[in-house]
Amino acid sequence: MSVLKTQCQDEDDAYIATTSVSESTTEGDEALKLVGRERTARFSEEDNRRVLRKLDFIIPPLCAAVYFTQFLDKTSLNYASIMDFPITGQHYNLVSLAFYLGLLVWQFPTVYIAQKLRIAKYLGANIVIWGVVLMCHAAAESFGAFFALRFLLGMCESCVVPILILIVAMFYKKNEQVGRSHET
Question: Which of 63, 139, 168, 177 supports an S-S bond with 184, CB 3.0-4.6 Å?
Answer without folding.
Answer: 63
